[in-house]
Specification:
7 helices; 0% strand; single chain; mainly alpha
Amino acid sequence: MMFPAWLVIAVVGAAIASASSLIRPRGIKWFKRQRRPDWLKFEFAIPVVWMAVFICGGWSAYIVWKQTQSWWFMAGYIVLELLIVSYNPVMCNLQNLRVGTAIGGAGFVFGLVLALLVAQVDGKAFLLLLPFLLWSPVGTLITWQMTKLNPGQ
């Protein structure tokens, strides 16, 4: 029995996103104690932003799959999502904001390369990656600024 591609992409995406639950409570407490930039007044909305980014990324992957049926592209989307969801557990478990900044930067660079490749396949699929390309540098900047505000971390 074949499952529709959109369902497989959604299930794989949800399974990968659930991997972020690997954060130990100690790491969460540590992260909550870190000082944030004064301009960060929208932290409550960050999970909603990431949910939108994941939905757009899944939709982009579906469009690319329908046009190419390329496992290489699907691997690219999976690697990007793994980079995104590794940010919290790795940074919090290591209790190291610099690691979080590095993961954020690596995710952006990988996402940019993927988006440029996707743009050659479909314009809509590329546009659906723009929320990630716009938000990722903001999240990385927040973490980088947090390293400056928490020098003893």
